C-alpha cells in the first residue's frame, strides 16, 4: 500500500463528521464533466467516456481538472455507477445522445438466477484510478469514492438503460418480489465489496447515489431501496489507518423519507433542491450531517443572482452549531451547458458567506 501525503484541507471530512469548520466546504456532483472545455479535450483524446473511465491516467487527469480550476473542498473519483453491472457481464455502452445502455438485461427467472457478484479484479481499473488520484492530489483535498445504490443499479439492469416510468422494474417488483429481492441482495453485496475496495485503494469518504429511489412508492422505497442501502452501509469499512471514512447516502426525491434515512447508519444525507435545509436539519438533528442542495439550474443565472441564491441557501441552513454539519453541493449533477464562470461565483460565495456567518 502506498503512503499518501497528509491532508492539508480536511474541512469536508470534518463537516461530514459534524465537527466544527471555519467555513462550509463545497463540491459539486459531476464536477468533472462536459461543462469544462478541458474535459471535452481529454475526452476527445480518449475517444469515448468508457475510454476515459477505464484508463487511470485519463481518469486522474479529469478528476483533477475541477480541483485545479476552483477552490473546491473535495475531489470525486471520475468513473460511473454503471461499472458494476458492466462487470457483471451486462455489456455497458453509450449510444450517442441516448445515455447509457446494456446489451443484456436481467428480467427472467433464468437471468436473475445467473446473476453473480462480480469478481472485484474486473474492476481493478477503478481501484488503480483511486490510488493514482489520491497520490496526485498530494493531500490537497480528500477523495470521494462512490457507487450506485442497489436499487438504482437494478433500474438500469432491468430496464436495460435509462427510463422515465420504470414500468419493467416496477412490474418485477410488484409481481415477482422474490426475483427483485434476489437482484437487490446481489447488488448490495457487490456495492459493499466495491466501496470497500475503493476505501482500500485510498478513498477517504464514500457516497451512494440512489438516483431513482424517488421513483418508488412510500413503503416500496423502504423495502426495495433503503433496506439495501442499510445492508451496504452496515458492511462498509468505516475506518482506515485510524481515520474515520464517512459514508454519504443520497436519494434523489427522498425528502419525505429523511427521518428513516437518518437511521441507516450513514454519516450524512445528500438532499435535492426540493428540501428546505433548515427544516431538514431540525428533522435529522444530530444523527447525520447534510449535503446539498442548490438547484443546478441556478447556475444559468448571472453571478449576482447566484450569490443571492447561495446566501439564501446558507441562511436557510442557519448558523453552524455543535453536533451539526453541512457540506454545500448542488441538488443533482451539474448540467453540461453550465457556464464555467458560474461555478466560480458559486464556490466563492459559499466560502465568503459561510465565513461571515461564523463571524457574526
Ligand atoms: O461527480 C463526478 O464528477 C464523478 C463522476 C460521475 C459520473 N457519473 C461521470 C459521468 C458520477 C458520480 C456519476 C454517477 C452516475 N452515473 C449516476 C448517479 C448520479 C446521478 O446523476 O443521478 C447515474 C444515474 C449515472 C449513469 C449515467 N452515466 C448517465 C445517466 C450518464 C449521462 C449520459 C449522457 O450522455 O448524458 C452517464 C455518463 C457520464 N457519467 C458522463 C459523466 C461525466 C457523461 C459522459 C460523457 O462524457 O459523454
Short description:
This protein has a single domain (11-359), classed as TIM Barrel (Alpha-Beta Barrel). The protein has 15 helices and 11 strands.
Task: Explain how this protein is built.
By secondary structure, this protein is α/β, with parallel strands linked by helices. It has one domain: TIM Barrel (Alpha-Beta Barrel), CATH 3.20.20. Helix content is about 45%, strand content about 10%. It has 15 helices and eleven strands. The chain has helices spanning about 10-15, 35-45, 50-55, 55-70, 85-90, 110-115, 125-135, 150-160, 165-175, 175-200, 220-235, 260, 275-285, 305-315, 340-360, and strands spanning about 75, 90-95, 100, 145-150, 205-210, 240, 245, 245-250, 270, 290-295, 325-330. The strands form three sheets. It has a seven-stranded parallel sheet with strand order 1-4-5-8-9-10-11. Strand 8 (about 245-250), helix 12 and strand 9 (about 270) form a beta-alpha-beta unit. The protein is globular, with a radius of gyration of 19 Å. About 50% of the residues are buried. The site of coproporphyrinogen III has 20 residues, from strand 3. Coproporphyrinogen III binds next to strand 3. Pfam families: URO-D. Homodimer. It comes from Massilia terrae. It is found in: Cytoplasm. Its EC number is 4.1.1.37.
List keywords for this structure.
single chain, 360 residues, alpha/beta, globular, binds coproporphyrinogen III, decarboxylase, Uroporphyrinogen_deCOase, UROD/MetE-like_sf, cytoplasm, Uroporphyrinogen_deCO2ase_HemE
Amino acid at each position: 500500500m502506498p503512503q499518501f501525503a497528509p491532508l492539508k484541507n480536511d474541512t469536508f471530512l470534518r463537516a461530514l463528521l459534524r465537527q466544527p469548520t471555519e467555513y462550509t466546504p463545497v463540491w459539486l456532483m459531476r464536477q468533472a464533466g462536459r461543462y469544462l472545455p478541458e474535459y471535452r479535450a481529454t475526452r476527445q483524446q480518449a475517444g469515448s467516456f468508457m475510454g476515459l473511465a477505464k484508463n487511470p491516467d485519463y481518469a486522474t487527469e479529469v478528476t483533477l481538472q475541477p480541483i485545479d480550476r476552483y477552490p473546491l473542498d473535495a475531489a470525486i473519483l471520475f468513473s460511473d455507477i454503471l461499472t458494476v453491472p458492466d462487470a457483471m457481464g451486462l455489456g455497458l455502452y453509450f449510444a450517442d445522445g441516448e445515455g447509457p445502455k446494456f446489451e443484456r438485461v436481467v428480467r427472467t427467472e433464468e437471468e436473475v438466477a445467473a446473476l453473480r457478484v462480480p469478481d472485484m479484479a474486473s474492476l481493478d481499473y477503478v481501484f488503480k484510478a483511486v490510488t493514482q488520484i489520491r497520490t496526485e492530489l498530494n493531500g490537497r483535498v480528500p477523495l470521494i469514492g462512490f457507487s450506485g445504490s442497489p436499487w438504482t443499479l437494478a433500474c438500469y439492469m432491468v430496464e436495460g438503460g435509462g427510463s422515465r416510468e420504470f414500468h419493467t422494474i416496477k412490474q418485477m417488483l410488484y409481481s415477482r418480489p422474490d426475483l427483485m429481492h434476489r437482484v437487490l441482495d446481489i447488488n448490495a453485496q457487490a456495492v459493499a465489496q466495491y466501496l470497500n475496495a475503493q476505501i482500500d485503494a485510498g478513498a477517504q469518504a464514500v457516497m451512494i447515489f440512489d438516483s431513482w429511489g424517488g421513483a418508488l412508492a412510500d413503503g416500496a422505497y423502504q423495502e426495495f431501496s433503503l433496506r439495501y442501502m442499510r445492508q451496504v452501509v452496515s458492511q462498509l469499512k468505516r475506518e482506515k489507518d485510524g481515520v474515520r471514512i464517512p459514508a454519504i447516502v443520497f436519494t434523489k426525491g427522498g425528502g419525505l423519507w429523511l427521518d428513516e434515512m437518518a437511521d441507516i447508519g450513514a454519516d450524512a444525507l445528500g438532499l435535492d433542491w426540493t428540501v428546505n435545509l433548515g427544516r431538514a436539519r431540525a428533522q435529522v438533528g444530530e444523527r447525520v450531517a447534510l449535503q446539498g442542495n442548490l438547484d443546478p439550474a441556478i447556475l444559468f443565472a448571472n453571478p449576482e443572482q447566484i450569490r443571492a441564491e447561495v446566501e439564501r441557501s446558507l441562511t436557510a441552513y442557519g448558523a453552524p452549531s455543535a453536533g451539526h454539519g453541512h457540506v454545500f453541493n448542488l441538488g443533482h449533477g451539474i448540467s453540461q451547458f453550465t457556464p464555467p464562470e458560474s461555478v466560480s461565483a458559486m464556490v466563492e460565495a459559499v466560502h465568503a458567506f459561510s465565513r461571515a456567518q461564523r463571524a457574526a
